[in-house]
């Protein structure tokens, strides 16, 4: 099989993964719509601990729970398609599949969906699926909009540091994606709890305090990986490639800003006792700075001529 054929297969797998993620997301939307229409008895049967499905023996699960099962299965399929896309892209280019924004986004989304599926299996967090898929769709759409044909790396990237630097950043980004999704869901659930109007849809999710803990754990895992990837191995690689450790490049600046915001978030949680809404908003600011670094800096470079040595990434 030629490299062009492998590249084409990768493109088809990416497109297929995007479509399957869309369908899975709309299954969660159907779940929420069905939950609004369930009778109180059916909702009580369907709402298990933490949003898990708890069906009485020989009873047919309510429609909302059936949609959850379909959505989880489709999410697993989407993860496999995107993993396949990354693998075939790597075979087509004969290198690691994260040499540009397109590859970074596709592979990072595959990692995020894989992490989510593992946690569904281990911790029954399928209640988070709709929000996770919405974030993944957003990242995939941005990645596809920056599609780059399969090809060799620019010379500055031809070093083993690419595996360490980009690999750790991609895993960190996946954690921030899931943590950001949990923060959004927390704010929605907490607002409903404060108003005392938790309806049949939001009652399928855990208590807001538990969602807040999930968000903290994901971000706490992502932060040291981001520190290692962006602020330790990144400068080392920059020194080897360009002869300097730090040049105040827009990507470097925004990577530092992202680090500062998440450092402030974790510091506030651990030492100042920040929990709940203030912490969630700060976590979302951190995720917004990551999106700015990942996508907007490149857009500014291409559309407005802002200089960056990282426009390929």
TrEMBL record:
Superkingdom classification of source: Bacteria
UniProt entry keywords in alphabetical sequence: Cytochrome c-type biogenesis, Membrane, Transmembrane, Transmembrane helix
Species: Aeromicrobium duanguangcaii
The keyword Transmembrane helix belongs to this UniProt entry's keyword annotation: yes
Main localization, broad class: membrane
Gene expressing this chain: ccsB
InterPro entries xrefs: Cyt_c_assembly, Cyt_c_biogenesis_CcsA, Cyt_c_biogenesis_CcsA/CcmC
Cytochrome c assembly protein domain span: 110-301
Keyword Transmembrane helix: yes
Record-annotated membrane-spanning stretches: 12-30, 67-84, 104-121, 128-148, 160-188, 220-241, 253-272, 279-297
Name recorded for this polypeptide: C-type cytochrome biogenesis protein CcsB
Pfam families the UniProt entry points to: Cytochrom_C_asm
Subcellular location: Membrane
Protein's membrane topology: Multi-pass membrane protein
